[in-house]
Amino acid sequence: MPQPAYRRPRDRRSAVYPYLAAALVMALVAAVAVAAQALRGPAPAEAAPPAAAAPRGPAQWVAAWTSMPQLTEPANMPPPPFTQDDGVLHDATLRQTVRLTVSGDRLRFRFSNAFGGAELPLTRAAVALPAGGRAGVDGIVPGTSRPLTFSGRPATTVPVGAQVVSDPVRLDAAPGANLTVTLHLADGQASTDVTSHPGSRTTSYLLAGDHTDAAALPGATATDHWYFLSGVEAEASAPTRAAVVLGDSLSDGRGSTTNGNDRWPDLLNDRLRGPGAPPVSVVNQAAGGNRVLDDGLGPNALARLDRDVLAVSGARWLLVFEGINDIGTAPATPAAQEETGDELVAAYDQIVTRAHAQGIRVYGATLTPFGGSTPYDDPEGLREATRQRVNDWIRSSGRFDAVVDFDAATRDPANPRALRPALDTGDHLHLNPQGYALLASTVPLRLFR
Question: 182 lies in which domain range?
Answer without folding.
Answer: 57-236
